[in-house]
Amino acid sequence: MTATLTANAPARPRKLLTSRRTRVGILYALPVVVYLLVLFVYPILSTLFLSLKNADGSLTLHWYAEALTGVNLSVLFTTLRISAETALFSLLFGFILANAISRLKPLWAGVAMLIVVVPHFISALVRTYGWIILLGDKGLVNETLVWVPGAPFQLLYNEIGVVIGTTSVMLPYTVLLLYGVMRGVDRRLLAAAASMGAGRVTIFRRVYLPLVAPGLASAGLLSFILSLGYYITPALMGGPQQTMIASLINQQVMKQNQWNGAAAEGVILLLLTFAGLLLVKLITSLGASRKKRSAS
Hints:
Blueprint: H1 2-8, H2 11-18, H3 20-51, H4 62-67, H5 70-102, H6 106-117, H7 124-135, H8 140-144, H9 159-183, H10 187-195, H11 200-228, H12 232-237, H13 245-254, H14 259-295
Helix pairs in contact: 3-14, 5-9, 5-11, 7-9, 9-11, 10-11, 11-14, 13-14
């Protein structure tokens, strides 16, 4: 009997591959596979090989060493710092907005979410120029704060302007993620904690915050990852000290014709993005397992 099972084992995958259902499935999946190979896998591998090529065609790590030293390393740290600041402010304002919207009735919550999301469909270039007009020396912000000592304030072509611009771009993503998490919180748990004598601060710290913590981590990391490769707003609203890695890649390609160095910068940016996505996946799975344990 064991010999019969062993003989039939290789035949089962072969029979599965020859079945009509499997062939149809492979036929349907083939365009998607080809699409991914041509438009994703091939460009990434080409960029990787380009970053490892020397001028004479030999393999080298020179471009990575150059990308991680001197001015290029400073640009990388600036990118990480501005992305972290953007993620922090996006979380702060996104938490306040999402928390307020989640307490509204469904109709008004839908209207509020529409107001938050619709500006995101406007061109990023148009929104950036809008912020430049608002934050200029004669803009609405400085004209409103004209009575404050020290006005007009320098809100453009520095890190403040870049963070304001990038935060406004990332805010809809943060609000959408946090709103979904906050809407799923069982309000009876908060009522139960209040009935047992817990104050508002205690309820928020011990009950509400742990429930929404996975959403906070995911939203913050998403804003951070998206900010890493963002180009338009930092390029238009920042100064020389706020050069980010996307602007550096653009300079190397368009002005210096240094494709190998730009490829190395791109691979480093891709690795940072993958690391952030893996972290998001880890935090999400930990949050799901914690919720499952608490439910059981």
